[in-house]
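Bumping with the actual sequence this time:
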Amino acid sequence: MAEKKEKKEMNFEDSLVSLEAIVKKLETGEVPLDDAISEFQKAMELAKACDEKLKTAEEAITKLVKDNGDVVDFQVDET
């Protein structure tokens, strides 16, 4: 049985460009229904991937490492 090759994961910027292109294509209203459904599904996958990458980035930048090596959440004191 042949193994299915995994697709190379797109970076955030490339995913966003692809998502924007699909949205513009769908906004024309000139896409056949079956193609529109397929494009919409691709757009939803791209949107989900972008959201996950943003959440991962947010988690990474909200952590601070103290001098003793402890990792703590970054908080802004608004007093």
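The tokens above came from a reply further down the thread. The radius of gyration is 19 Å.
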